[in-house]
Amino acid sequence: MNMSSDPHGRASSYLNTRGRGAEAHLPIRFERLHVEDDLETLEELQRTDPDFEPKTAPTTFYRDDTQSIITKNSSPDLGFEASLNPYRGCEHGCAYCYARPYHEFLGMDAGLDFETKIMVKERAAELLEKELRNPRWEPRVLACSGVTDPYQPVERRLGVTRGCLEVLARFRNPVAIVTKNHLVTRDIDYLGALAEEKAALVCLSVTTLDGDLARILEPRASSPSFRLDAVRRLSAAGIPVGVSLAPVIPGLNDHEMLGILEAAAAAGACMAFYTIVRLPHGVKDVFLAWLDRHAPEKKERVLGRIREMRGGSLNDPRFGSRLRGEGAMADGIEAMFRAGVRRFGLDRSPGPLHTGAFRRPGEERQLDLFG
């Protein structure tokens, strides 16, 4: 696969965005000027010219020449201290993805750029090994990935995440993975080796059991049935596996909560967690456009319920409340979730992942030589 080093070019405004979560480029918060997609002209051309074919929105991959791979987390409401992210941007294109605004720090937008301009950390495994060999590294759980999905479609060809897992398995450093992609089952060998040391946990993100809804909400992620199949395969291999209901979108998928929990338990999941949708910065624009296009009859109900849980806003960045929301509706969702967890036996968390088996390959032989 060819990869470029310049991610800042712009494609034609006349794009066919079928199969994408966003339908346009967005202004970038940190830029004074921006290119605006002429969607009205595109729609007019499609109506009046039967031979007009808009260009598809292609995915382009760029080398990310980062010099480190482990990121420390300082957010008190997240359950990990450090993470590794093999990719920046995500081709899954989920319309609600909270990570979209991170692309703006790279000079790209949170709309189409986020899902069509993917930064690839080709040296991730090499950098990871270097950091784990550093005597100052204290073994701890690494979240893979804390931002974008480590098993997005290009991983099948590039294997960057698999390379990182090979390193983690050799060092026996614990890892927790959240993904929407069945591709995670490819790496059962490394995950199984880590699980034997109680150093692996995988969570499949299942937001809906409705394949048609998933196809437009999360256009390039695995189907719900494939995600549940991944739960089965991982569980059968002895790897602790859970399900993530993230995000719960009131008025759109909240009514599916108990059904998802039941299906996940039947597939072999041992635990579950959820978050409430939040719409920071450009995510709001992408999601509102998605509602206009795919669920206009539900738009006001969905937005009204989000505002009810977010103090009248569509986003609440405060630690503690940002993942759960506040108010009677948020309390009701939490009560339903807890009841479902108890009912379907999803309260069997494997507990904290172990760091006691960590080793630096090669050091054992040196210890043998010197007694």
Give your account of this protein's structure.
By secondary structure, the protein is of the alpha/beta class. Helix content is 35%, strand content 13%. It has 13 helices and twelve strands. It has helices spanning 39-48, 112-116, 124-133, 155-158, 160-171, 188-196, 211-217, 224-236, 257-267, 282-294, 299-309, 328-343, 363-369; strands at 15-16, 55-56, 60-63, 70-72, 82-84, 87-88, 117-120, 142-144, 175-179, 200-205, 241-248, 271-276. The strands form three sheets. The chain has a seven-stranded mixed β-sheet with strand order 4-5-8-9-10-11-12. A three-stranded mixed β-sheet has the order 3-7-6. Strands 1-2 form a two-stranded parallel ribbon. α6 links the parallel β9 and β10 (200-205). α3 packs parallel to α5, α5 (160-171) packs parallel to α6 (188-196) and α9 (257-267) packs parallel to α12. 43% of the residues are buried. Mean pLDDT is 89; it is low at 10-14.
